[in-house]
Amino acid sequence: MKMFDAIYKCRLCGEEFVECSTSGEKSNRSFVMKIMCRAVEQKEPEEIMEPTLYACHPCKDGSFGVADFQGMRLEGKTG
Predict the structure, then answer these.
(1) Helix, strand, coil % (nearest 5) of the chain?
(2) CA-CA distance, 5 to 74, in Å (whole number)?
(3) N or C: which end of the chain has fewer CB within 10 A?
(4) d(Cα 55, Cα 46) in Å, to the nearest integer?
(5) Which of 66, 63, 64, 52 is nearest to 10 (CA)?
């Protein structure tokens, strides 16, 4: 079963990473769209595991960066 991955990108080191995922079932597509709409409108998350606009990222060199929510990518697709 395909998944939607919440993709973040670190401002400091540029690394993209997955913070959380949801199934790609038809019933969850509307949930993914709701998440995207809330992110665009910069509203607070309502659901557990709903991505936030920003995340802390531990960079490989030991630094800590701020990561921005990029969107929900269908598993197996590349940016």
Answers:
(1) 20, 40, 40
(2) 6
(3) N
(4) 16
(5) 66
